[in-house]
Amino acid sequence: MSVEAMKAGAIEFLTKPFREQDLLDAIRQAIDRDRAAREERRELAELRRRYDSLTPRERDVMAGIVAGLLNKQIAAEFGASEVTVKEQAMLKMQAGSLADLVRTAARLRIPPPGVARPHQGRVDTSRPAN
């Protein structure tokens, strides 16, 4: 029965007899966990919305920034100014710093440049196959 309860989403078990305060504490803890999970999902949805608003070029710029390329390297590759490179992804992603942009990419599980994305079918040909 306890396994079924866990599969159904139980987060706490109270053994009988239990104090009323134990029940209230368990309910409060469940509400707090649910609130935190909802907030995390809301934040991820907002980050995903921002990322989805980027053009393919802006996504490539963001990937280059997150990969640690210098702004001038990215600018040379795309024929843009260094300021444009820095502002392009940072503004749309509402990242206050490079660290914020990197954390955002990690939270969204954005693969580093050169890694195939299943829906795009890209293959990294710069590395030998295993």
Descriptive account of the structure:
- This protein has 130 residues and is an all-alpha fold.
- The protein is built from 6 helices and no strands.
- The protein has helices at residues 2-7, 20-53, 56-66, 71-78, 82-93, 98-107.
Distance between the termini: 46 Å
Total helical elements = 6
The string of secondary-structure elements, in order, is HHHHHH
Largest sheet, described in full? none
The chain-level mean pLDDT equals 82
Radius of gyration: 22 Å
Fraction of residues in β-strands = under 5%
Number of strands: 0
The structure class reads mainly alpha
Unreliable runs, pLDDT <50, ≥5 residues? 116-130
Share of helix among residues? 55-70%
User: Which assembly state applies to the chains in this document?
Assistant: single chain
Global outline: rod-shaped
Q: What is the structure about, briefly put?
A:
Helix content is 62%, strand content 0%. The protein is an all-alpha fold and 130 residues long.
Mind sketching the topology for me?
Elements: H1 2-7, H2 20-53, H3 56-66, H4 71-78, H5 82-93, H6 98-107
Helix pairs in contact: 3-5, 3-6, 4-5
Name a few traits of the molecule:
disordered C terminus, mainly alpha, 6 helices, 0% strand, single chain, rod-shaped
